[in-house]
């Protein structure tokens, strides 16, 4: 289920996005 993986990454995105790499979000 790729959707689940994408959602999981989106959940951790806020932290990474706020960390420094906003480009790593959409990826």
UniProtKB/TrEMBL annotation:
Bias kind Basic and acidic residues: ranges: 1-10
- Record region (Disordered): 1-27
Output this protein's name: Uncharacterized protein
Protein's organism? marine metagenome
């Amino acid at each position: 289920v790729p959707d689940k993986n994408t959602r999981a990454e989106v959940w951790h995105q806020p932290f990474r996005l706020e960390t420094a790499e906003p480009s790593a979000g959409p990826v």
